[in-house]
Amino acid sequence: MTNPDPLTGQQLSGNPVVAVKIDNTYFDVAQFGVSKADVVFVEQVEGGLTRLIAVFHTNLDQEVGPVRSVRTTDAELLPAFGTPALVFSGGAQGPLDALASTSVVNTSDLQTGYFRSDVASGSYNLHANLAEVVASTSGLTPARSIGFTFAATDARVAKGSAATEIAVTMQAGLTTFSWNGSAYARMRNGEAMADYQGDPQLADNVLVQSVVDEPDGTYDTVGSPSYISHTVGSGAVTLYRDGKALEGTWSRDSVDGTFSYLDAAGKPLPFKPGRTWVILAPQSAYTEVS
């Protein structure tokens, strides 16, 4: 395909990029809109739990939620997309200050686009309409590549080791995927996950990116420290696609820079066109593959 989309490797979209902080601990009500994200990052937060950074670009006609608060990891990561919008529900002063020093557009004070859903309560009922958020936001730039090199086929894939079940544990947060013959289905308690709207959460690529995390000086209401997972630096990475595992390394030189994902021979890892989930796995995490 000539001139493919930089985030999916598929049909080019002229839409901007909107990232959304989405809760990943409350499952009494299913998440909204995650299945339509082009890229999803899983980040560790306080207490060893996880939260999602769902990045939307090709499809902005979405209700998403539950929307949660910002972390310093977001401020270091998201400038890789250029000038994206971030949908979130406030946060501690440290992460807010970190975000303010970046190119990311803070939409949390918008009077339109955010609303309270009646499907849940408390911290879990803030939702957003992405089309309304974008219509009320200025200064967003077109999507740019963050470092994914797409290839529908590649001889290296067949040579990779088999990987049909993937489980990444970050202290109190477990992220699992199961190869279904065409994509990796996100799993929970042995069952494939779907959005509230009924759409399955599927990944064409699952990337486990080894990162270093450290306390960022912020604490939650019970005294648990918040962590920043550093996405500037380098480390090991494993790309899972088509039921196979490909080993490599990642690097990124600056907050405004993009990623490099290379195999042992120094060639770009071949991402499959489609949706990608990236698990930012800190040094305390461990991965089980079968």
Automatic annotation (TrEMBL):
Domain of life per record: Bacteria
Pfam family, one: DUF3048_C
Signal peptide limits: none
InterPro entries: DUF3048_C, DUF3048_N, YerB-like_sf
Domain DUF3048 stretches: 10-137, 175-278
SUPFAM superfamilies xrefs: YerB-like
Name this polypeptide is given: DUF3048 domain-containing protein
Source organism of the structure: Nakamurella alba
